[in-house]
Amino acid sequence: MKQGLVLIPGLLCDHALWAPQVQAMSDVADCWVSPPPSEDTMQAMGQAVLRAAPFDSFALAGLSMGGYVCMEIMRQAPGRVTGLALLDTRAAADAPEETQRRRDLVRLARTARNFQPVTRLMLPLLMHPSRQEDAALVQIVTEMAERVGIDTYVRQQQAIISRPDSRDALRSVCVPALVLCGRQDALTNLARHEEMAALIPGAELVVIEDCGHISTLERPGEVTAALRRWWERL
């Protein structure tokens, strides 16, 4: 029987964020992608994933906001988790200026009643410069946002703003861990990942070259290769 792998999407993302990895990992893992977390606290997001996950125990991977949810799950139910992969995320809480930027984006989305102005601002931060004119990739990102919707986006941002600092909690992780990021990630930079990898005993740090924040879609082959190496350690 294949081991379960729970994959948690990031802010304004859904199953499409992990589609390349689900396809490429299906020979070794029973993959389940969480629906977009829609609760307004990180604690409630973690509880919702734990209730919905179809496995008693599972390996756990999350990107960006999905990484925050992974760290919350490690606080709530570490005994259910057999491995941890944190992609393009961070353990520290927001600085005040970051919180303000999130609130400004929420206000912009509510005022416009669509994501077009938000997308125009965020795409340069989400992707490596070489991919920002990739129409197919941009379409995937914008369609995910439309499916998630403004109401869920507002609650997600509220949960992110109020999330706790997870750095001390990472010291107690005792399962095989992968920390991965795009070298040009403009939202959660390499230093954030070096910090997390140093805190988690035995963690492997992988840096994907010529890659921004949404590594699973920008460089799916390299990300999947790193996940498969991590999988062999479980």
Descriptive key words:
234 residues; alpha/beta; Rossmann fold; 11 helices; 6 strands; 50% helix; globular
The DSSP helix count reads 11
CATH homologous superfamily annotation: Alpha/Beta hydrolase fold, catalytic domain
How many beta-strand segments?
6
Strand order of the largest sheet: 2-1-3-4-5-6
The chain-level mean pLDDT equals: 96
Radius of gyration: 16 Å
CATH topology: Rossmann fold
Give the CATH class. Alpha Beta
Unreliable stretches covering 5 or more consecutive residues: none
In terms of structural class, how would the helical and strand content be classed? alpha/beta
How many structural domains? 1
What proportion of the residues form beta strands (DSSP E)? 5-15%
Helix content: 40-55%
The biggest sheet amounts to: 6 strands, parallel
Our measurement of the CA-to-CA distance between the termini, rounded to an integer number of angstroms, reads 14 Å
Architecture, CATH level 2?
Answer: 3-Layer(aba) Sandwich
Outline type: globular
Write the element-wise H/E pattern from the N-terminal end onward. EHEHEHEHHHHHEHEHH
Briefly, what is this?
Helix content is 50%, strand content 15%. By secondary structure, the protein is of the alpha/beta class.
